Amino acid sequence: MRNLKLILAYDGSEFSGWQVQPDKETIQGTLASAIGRITGENVLPQGSGRTDAGVHALAQVVTFVTESSVPTENFQRAFNDLLPPAIRVMEVGEVPAEFHARHSAVAKTYRYRIYRGAICPPFLARYVWHYPYPLDETAMCGATSQIVGEHDFTSFAAVDPEASREGRPVSNVRTIFSAMGVRNGEELVCTIRGSGFLHHMVRNLVGTFILVGKGTIPSDGVAKILAARNRSAAGATAPPNGLYLVSVEYE
Length: 251
What we know:
The chain has helices at about 25-40, 70-80, 135-145, 160-165, 200-215, 220-230; strands spanning about 1-10, 45, 55-65, 85-95, 105-115, 130, 150, 175-185, 185-195, 245-250.
């Protein structure tokens, strides 16, 4: 048995997220189909996390176990011949049996892009949140520091449907190592690195930072929303198309 690690980049616009679902096109399901065609095995690949419908990835990490004798270097070419152009396998490597894309991860980085120009170019529309309205960007960027550290992020977590179905206890405590907002040309870019993320957490944070920029909540209000541990205290969920999984780190 061999444990293979893939690094995927994908445009999530036309997919119903990472996780396989009946009668829907997903990243995991599409990749599983390609694995079956290459190896003849029925394998469900495991990702470092479940990106939502419309969310993109620059370096999603995936592992799967196979008995196939196909040389590791041939897998990448085979995958990219079979997969749609919106999914590319950037790297393939063999890893120890105990390595798992999700369980072995120690940190992830997400990036959210907000396009601030009056007119969003059509070739960018699927990859940014177009928000041309007035915002205090300095206040927004300053507010990101309030989420750094270990916190209970209940106020920024959507209900996890999988955990609810399985009746699993869920801890909403996560550690954010860094968070920052910067202006890059016509875009305001928010980058967050943490130990892990809850369902819709980054998008809910961005929706709340927008409220800071609008002046709806004060610049120090994010800390108070964290302390409330109440989803209704935070902002609306930002659209998925501006969000990217940038990297996953392992020890």
